[in-house]
Amino acid sequence: MELRIEPERSAASGPSRVRMALAALLVSWLVTMTAKVHAEQISVEAAATAAGLAIETGNAGVNGVTIYYRDIGPRAEPVILLHGFPETGDTFARAIATLGKRYRLVVPDLRGAGQSQRTSSGYDKRTLATDVKELMDRLQIDRAHVMGHDIGARVAYAFAVQYPERLLSLTVAEAFIEGLAGTAEFKRFAPTNPRTQHFARFARVDEALSEYQGKVEELVLSFMNSRSKSRKFTGDDVTRYTASLGRDGGLRAAFMSYEAFDRDAAFAASADTSGLSRIPALAIVCQNPGGNILQRQLVAAGLKNVKGATLDGCAHWIYEENPDETLAVLTDFLGAANALPK
């Protein structure tokens, strides 16, 4: 009789092997989906939802442009949050839970950024400020606390000098306002200062486009990490910024904001600031050798109720490097501003 030895059957054979394969596929899918979730930069919308805050979003046709905005929180005193470069309104995501429980937050993407329309012109800060004012009109907001960071600070100041009657308070952070005190000296040293050399480079819009087209993520990461003290940004941290600049016309729109700086300076230098003398104002900077130049600029412009704050744990991105210290300063300031007679 011939002895035949059958190979041992694996426990994973037949239906078990199919189940294991399906399980492996499921695990692979879950890992992929988890990676996608973690790779997406947090949005203002997600932050509001996570905090249990009511949020409405919309596209408003104002001043010849369509502006995307988020309207968050209780129908209380409004706070308008204005972003800078290379940001979108999502830079404020970490501020939403804290501020949104007490204030009505309106967070637009400025003209040319995020989900707002790219236009061929209108990137001077006077025009961008009018976009904001007309958005307030559309949302039936009479007066608001207006807060701006970086480019957004310049827009906030242009808003203040044009529409002081619409302000509850003014906050500017991490910017130099062209046209105010120190502008001549600033322009003299800007070409040799690593933090400001990009002003002239970006202002040459066509040259800048040729240099950075197809290198948007590289530009964003290089720009942000060269101005960061307490955080190392990765591609996953800036997906919404790179998507904004990568959309048709996004990079050009961003550079056109720099191209407008000379016009911005002429406007600020000639603006009437008499309506701002009693407006509560806050100037925020990260610790630097020059001190709080923003506060000095506002005081020299005639504002008489100006507070200054210098933050330790940041180099520029106050809401993303050091949100806790930033929010403590903002809530204290807003609380004091609320206590003043309107």
Layout: helices, strands, pairs:
Blueprint: H1 15-39, H2 44-50, E1 55-62, E2 65-72, E3 78-82, H3 93-100, E4 104-108, H4 125-138, E5 144-149, H5 151-162, E6 167-173, H6 183-189, H7 198-203, H8 205-212, H9 216-225, H10 239-246, H11 250-259, H12 261-270, E7 281-286, H13 293-300, E8 306-311, H14 318-321, H15 323-339
Parallel strand pairs: 3-4, 3-5, 5-6, 6-7, 7-8
Antiparallel strand pairs: 1-2, 2-4
Give an overview of the whole structure.
Helix 5 (151-162) links the parallel strand 5 (144-149) and strand 6. This protein has helices at residues 15-39, 44-50, 93-100, 125-138, 151-162, 183-189, 198-203, 205-212, 216-225, 239-246, 250-259, 261-270, 293-300, 318-321, 323-339; strands at residues 55-62, 65-72, 78-82, 104-108, 144-149, 167-173, 281-286, 306-311. It has an eight-stranded mixed β-sheet, with helices on both faces. It contains 15 helices and eight strands. The radius of gyration is 24 Å and the shape is globular. Helix content is 45%, strand content 15%. It is an alpha/beta fold. The N and C termini lie far apart (107 Å).
